[in-house]
Write a structure and sequence with these properties.
Layout (H helix, E strand, L loop, with lengths): L1 H26 L17 H8 L3 E17 L6 E16 L8 E4 L2 E6 L3 E2 L11 E6 L4 H19 L2 H21 L4 E6 L2
Parallel strand pairs: 4-7
Antiparallel strand pairs: 1-2, 2-5, 2-6, 3-4
């Protein structure tokens, strides 16, 4: 009798397991978990904001030295002021000017149009390094300011050349290309406005 009870209990347990299996299968037939990777990479608003948050991105730094002079004609003698100005002009882009539609992604391909390369800092003359090379006569602060502005214009003229702007654009495209490769993009087209 004890063996019969054991067989009945084992049979009941087996029936419950089979019923539970079919019930579980019917409940989860439309629900499943799949593991895999997605090849699509989409720039999120956070990533775009992170790119904009870079702020100013320097691609070329040019050290400049300008000697400028001025002469004031006098009745008995001429007054002369000669000064040497030093500066560093930084060329690059301001990522805050990145247009909302500047980044286009299709699968693992990315196209990006960056803002125009320009002068990042308009106060590039280091006045602490400015030296008077030769000075005769009396010169007012207004005269010195005029000489400063002359040096400023000459540095802009000598450093903001087509060749330097093109070198900065080339450096910028290469640096951004490398950064996008690190984010996982395979086909990358980077352009900087001219």
């Amino acid at each position: 009798m004890a063996n019969k009870i054991k067989i009945i209990i084992a049979g009941a347990i087996l029936l419950m397991l089979i019923a539970g299996f079919f019930w579980l299968k019917s409940v989860t037939k439309d629900n499943y978990i799949s593991l895999g990777t997605s090849e699509a990479i989409e720039p999120t608003p956070t990533q775009i904001q992170s790119i904009k948050d870079i702020g100013e991105w320097e691609f070329l730094s040019i050290s400049a030295e300008e000697m400028v002079d001025t002469v004031r004609k006098g009745f008995f003698s001429n007054d002369e002021l000669v000064r040497i100005y030093y500066g560093t002009l930084r060329l690059g882009i301001d990522m805050k000017q990145l247009a909302p539609d500047a980044i286009t992604v299709n699968g693992d391909s990315l196209e990006m149009m960056l803002p125009k390369v320009g002068l990042l800092d308009k106060d590039f003359i280091d006045e602490a390094k400015t030296k008077s090379f030769y000075e005769s006569g009396k010169w007012s602060p207004k005269d010195r300011e005029a000489l400063y502005k002359k040096a400023y214009r000459q540095m802009i003229q000598h450093c903001m050349t087509k060749e330097n702007l093109e070198a900065a654009r080339t450096n910028g495209e290469a640096q951004m290309h490398h950064m996008m490769q690190q984010l996982g993009y395979k086909n990358i087209t980077i352009k900087i406005e001219k």
